[in-house]
User: Fold these one by one.
Assistant:
Number 1:
Amino acid sequence: MPKAELHLHIEGSLEPELMFTLAQRNHVAIPFASVEEVRAAYAFSNLQDFLDIYYQGMGVLHSEQDFYDLTAAYLARAHADAVRHAEIFFDPQGHTTRGVAFGTVIAGITRALDDAKTSYGMTSKLIMCFLRHLSEAEAEATLDEALPYLDRIDGVGLDSSEVGHPPAKF
C-alpha cells in the first residue's frame, strides 16, 4: 500500500551502522564501542534522552557525501516500505554550529532527494528547523544563510528541547 511520511527528522534516521561508518570516515570519536551499544542507547524514556543520542549522531556528519549517504539510506528504507512521498525536516544549526557550511548540508540532502525522485519516483518536501534552545538571533542568521536555497526549502519549523523554549520566542 502506498504511503506518505509526513514528519521525519533526517538526522534522527541515522542508523547505528552508518553512524559507525561515518565516524570512521571522518575520524570522529563516538561514545559507543559497538553497534549494539548504540541500539541500546535508543531505549530512551523521554525527549531529552532521545536528543542526547540525536546530537551525538549529528557529530559524525561533516561532508556533502555524509548528508547524501544519510538521506539516501533513509529514502531507500522508505521506498522499501512503499513510501511515495516524504516530508523531511533538517536541522542546519546543529551542523553550522560545528563548522559545517549550510550549503554542504542542503547540497547532500537535496542531491539524495533528487536521486530518489529519479530512481523511485518519490516526491518530497524539505522543512528547515530552528533549534529551540538557540536564540532568535541565531535563527535569523540561519534564515539568512538559507536565502540562496529557498527554492529547495518548503517550510520552516522548530525542534529540540521544548522545556523553557516556547514557540513564542521566535
Note: The longest helix spans residues 102-120.
Number 2:
Amino acid sequence: MTSRRILPSAFLATLTIAALAGCGGGSMDHSDHSGHSAGSSASPTGAADVVTDPTCPAVVSLESVPERVVTMDAGAAAFLIELGLGDTVVGTAAPDFKTDFSGDIRAQLDAVPVLDDGQGSAEAVIASDPDLVTGISQYEFGGFDGTASVDQLESAGSAALSACGAVQDVPVDNIDETYRYISALSDAFDVTERGEELIDRIRTQVSDATAASRDADVPVLSLSSVPDAGAGINTNGGSRLANGIITLAGGTNIARDQLQDFASLSAEAVTEANPAVIVVVSGFADSSDEDLKAAIMASPLLAETDAVKNENVVVVPQRILLSPSLLNADAVQIIADAVANAS
C-alpha cells in the first residue's frame, strides 16, 4: 500500500468541535424556502452554525490530494463526478443509489466498478487500496454489518469522509447536510470553488422548486410502508433530512416535533393532523412504487385524510429524500408541487 500520512479522525473531530463550540441550533423562520434556514451563516454550507456528531468523519486531512477513492454508495460517486473528480473513483458499493440518475452522469456511474452490491464489505474496500473512502452516511463506516470502521480504515492507511447530520435540539429545516458534504469533498481535493458553484446551483434549484407562499401550513405525512393499525403509523421524525426537504417544499411534517430520525404516530394523531399531502417513500418495499402507492391510498387508517380524498399522494425515492444527494432538489420539487396542489 502507498505510504500516506493521515491526521487521526479523533484529532480532526476535536478540532471541529472546538471551532464550532457555542454554535448550537436555534429556532428557525419557516417562511424561508431558499435552500437553507433563515439563521444560516453567509458561508456556502452554513457550517459555522452547526456541531456534528464527533464520531462522524465530517472532515479529512491528507498531505496530498486523493488519487484513489472508494465510495460507499453510488450517490457519493455522483457528487465526485459532478465535481469533475470521477476519474479518482476506483470502485463503489451500494450501486442502487444510481437508479435515479439519467443521461451522461448515469453513464459515468454505470462505468464505476462495483466492489459490493450491498453496503460495502471491509475486505473489498480495503483491498482496493484507497487514499479516501467516502459515503453519504456515517453508518457506512462500521454501522452496517461488515463495513469498515473509521479506525479500521485509518489502520489500513485510508482516510474516511462522510456526510454528517447536525447535532441540534430543533427540527432539521434545510439540506445543509448536503452542502456541508459537498464542501468537505471539494476541500479534500483542493477544488473549493467547484464545490461552491455546485452548492449555489443546488440552492437555485431548490429556490426554483419551492411552492408559492401560503398563509396556512400544509401538513405532510411520509410513509415507506402501509400503516398497521396495531403497530402505529411509522414516519420520518424532525431530525432527518426528509424533514428539511419537506420544509423547503413549503410543507409541515406532522411528526416534525419528534426529534428523532423515525417516529411513530397513532392513527388518531394522524387523523387529527389531517395531512393534505402524503409522500410515499419508495425503495424499501418489495412491491413496485405504483403498488405501494395504491396500497397506502387504500389503507382505512388514511381514508379520511385530505391527501387520500384529493389523491394528493406522491412518490419520492428514499435515495434522494433521506440522504444527501445531487438530486435533493428533485425531491423538493415533487413535494412542492403536491403542496401547491393542496394550497
Note: The first strand starts at residue 69 and ends at 71.
Number 3:
Amino acid sequence: MKQRLLCVLLAAALCLSALTGCEKTPEPVEFSTFAMNTFMSFTFYGGDEKENQRVQDRMNVTLRRLDSLLCVNNESGDVNQINRGAGRKTKVDTLTAELLSQSLELCRLTGGALDITAYPAVKAWGFTQEEHRVPAPDELEALAEKIDYSAVRLEGDTVTLPEGMELELGAVAKGYAGDVLAETVRASDIPSALLDLGQSTIMAVGTKPGGVPWRIGVVDPAQPGSYFAVVELQDMAMGTSGGYQRYFEQDGETYWHILDPDTAAPARSGLASVTVVSPSAFLCDGLSTALFVMGLEEGAQLWRDHPELEFEVIFVTEKGELYRTAGLEGRFSLAEGYEGREVVVLE
C-alpha cells in the first residue's frame, strides 16, 4: 500500500514539473497610434483580453487629451492659448500645469541648456514646417534675446508669458506622456509592457515575460539604421537626442533641430548623440536634449552633481568616441559588430 501511494505521489510530482517547465510565454498584445506628431507603438504581456482593451482605451484617451492640450498648432489647446495670450494670464489644464512646472524646474537645473521658450527660433530655422533656411546673424541675435524660461510665470494653473515670447514643449511632451501612460499600465493587471513613444523615447514597464530585462538598442548616429549598444531596462525609460534625427544641409553645412538657447542656432557641442536612462521618461527626454547642448564635460559634471535625479548617460561624440556613466555597469553592452570599440566609463 505504501509503495503504491509513493508511486502515485511521484507521478503527480513529475506531471506538475512537466507542466511548470512547459508553461507558455504569454502572447503579446500590440497596438499603435499617431499622436504628438509621431507614430507610437505599445506591447502588453500577461493581461486578459478585457483588461488589455480597457488599458488600451484609457491610454488612447490620455494621448488624445495630451495631444490636444500640448500641440502648439491646436488653437483650442493650452500651449497655443498661452502663446496667443502672451502678456496676460492664461488658465490651463492641470496636466499642462504639471508639465510646465516640471519643465521649468529642469530648465533651471540645466542652466537654461533646455529652454521651452525657444520656439520662435525653431520656427525661424524652418523646422516646424520643414521649409528650412539659415537666419542672418542679426536675426539670430534678436531671437536669442527672446529666449528666457525664467520669464515664464506659473501660479497654480495660471500661466503668464511675456509679450513677444512663445513656448513649445516638444522636447519633453512625449516623455511626460510616457510617465502618465506607464502609471496607467502599473495600475492595471498587466505585469509587463513596452511603450515606444516614437523610437527616440521608450518606457519599459516591469520585465519581459520570464523575468528578464528588456533589451533596447541604442542607435549609432553615424549609421542610424544600426545599433551600437544594447541597454537592459526594467521599470526604466530611455531617451535619445541627436543631430541625425532631424537636419538639413545648405552650402556644405549641416544644421540640426537641437538649438542652443544662448545663440538660437544649432548646438555645436561636439556631440553626435546623447542617451539618458532613468525611471522617468520625462527626464530622459528633457535631459538628453539639454546634455546635447551642454557637451560632454559639462554634461558629465551635471550627472556627478545630481545623483538624486537617478539618471545615467551614454555620450557619442562627433568623432565617434563612446562614453557612458558608471551606473550602467551590468546593463550596457556593445552590439554585434561593435565589440572592439573603446568605451570610456565616467565616474
Note: Confidence is low (pLDDT under 50) at residues 1-22.
